Amino acid sequence: PLRYIPKLKELVKYEAEKNKSQWKTMGPAKVAVPSPNDFLQKHSKEPKLAPKKKEQDGKRLLPLLPPRTYHPIIHIKKNFITKNALAVITGEPKKPRHFCVDTRQGDKYLLEPSGLYPKYIKKKNYGVVPKCVTRRKEEMKREEEEYQASVLEQLKKKAMKTLPEEERTNILKALKKKWEEINHAYQSLPVLTDTTYKRMHKEELELKLKQLEHDIAAIEKHKNIYIAD
């Protein structure tokens, strides 16, 4: 009987040949073997110089003549001894440098960069606030004013009122007085907390003290306090 022949045999063979490249081989690739005549010769890889120009018709190649507008540079001999002598005679004398000697052996160092010479206080702008600091302060002040104006506008929209300074001071005093009372009670607790009630009472006092400290810091930090209706 005839053997089974799949219908997709040709398609599989075509796909196998399609994905195969020249470098995808079984075993070493088949490359051309170099010819024995192409061997490496001596001095073959050294750089070669351009050939020299030969004389044309027995005449030697002469350099081109300079143009008529060419003027050669004439080097004038200078008398450096006289020049240096005139520079010394007419120049200003060097000012003596100030030194500071701090040991008996005569060790000395320059006075100006040592920090002992008051050169900074003699400047014209000494003690003057820099312009960048002044500009920064003005910007901060302007931003604060804009922020306050925006807050006031929001307060007007939300119908909030500002806490008076007297009432704020009274609240702050009351909170500090309350904190002193609870702190006194906390300091009066026994050292040994061996019962559940003592531990709970101590934790309760600590929570109250933390809350009071937080409220006092918030009121002291913010001068303007707003109350919603």
UniProtKB/TrEMBL annotation:
The keyword Cytoplasm is assigned to this record: yes
Coiled coil feature spans: none
Keywords: Cell projection, Cytoplasm, Cytoskeleton
Domain Enkurin: from-to ranges: 135-227
GO molecular function terms listed in the Swiss-Prot or TrEMBL record: calmodulin binding
InterPro entries: Enkurin_dom, Enkurin_domain-protein
Residue segments, region Disordered: 25-58
Protein name in UniProt: ENKUR protein
Annotated source species: Pycnonotus jocosus
Segments of skewed composition (Basic and acidic residues): 40-58
One cellular component (GO) term of this entry: axonemal microtubule
Chief location bin: other
Subcellular location: Cell projection, Cilium; Cytoplasm, Cytoskeleton
